[in-house]
Hints:
Blueprint: H1 7-14, H2 17-20, H3 28-45, H4 52-69, H5 74-102, H6 107-133, H7 141-169, H8 179-182, H9 187-196, H10 207-224, H11 228-254
Amino acid sequence: MSERISVADIRRIGQPESITGRRTAEHWSASLYLRHWSPYLTWLLLPTGISANGVTVLMMLVGWGSAFALLIPGLPGAFLAALMAQGQMLVDASDGEVARVRGTTGPTGVFLDKIGHYTTEALIPLALGIRAAGEFDLGSGWSYAGAVLAIIILWNKALNDMLEATRYSAGLPKLVDSDSVSAPQGGMAASLRKAVRFFPFHRIYHSVEMTLLILAAGVLDLVFGDLVATRWLLALLIPLSLLATLGHAVAIVRSQRLK
């Protein structure tokens, strides 16, 4: 029987600088604490024989569970959703480690990973809309508002894939992940980018940030004895998401990413 791989070796093989040193692909929770914990989860998963793609499917299920947890009224649902959103990111870190340790990295895993994040980050605002309605009423105006927010978030996420598809169609090389390439070149777009660094509202549509905001709104709802905070949150997220999407598109066009 072969010797079991150590956690230290999982860190060495599964977390190379090319992964952990990326400017944009790593979520702050990964660099802050999840990358410290994920090798232990990977160490538990490796002996089970589950494939890296199987771990990615598990990541999807945890993310979807985060969204569905929001259908549980009150703080329990909001707390469970925030916890599972963190869990999704933990499993997301582990699937790549499993693939690199076993030497099974490939495009299928990347594709499944995108499905997991796209669907989760669309389901959470949908669930937020139903939560704001106070009951499972798909005909409620709040449910429609959640659907609108989900669509805008998907538009925003799709811009990065549109960029990659455009570069591929134009015969351009793989995009270099650096500030000099991604930063808007002069004008108002460059000034707004600098301002956004002090208030990075464009990041709040990620599953982790959004579920934490929903949890905070749930605490305020408990204080006020109504759904006023949850409804205000949803109402504010829609215009902010439009602004973030527009700014994202302008930043792409005004940068070196299409050259």
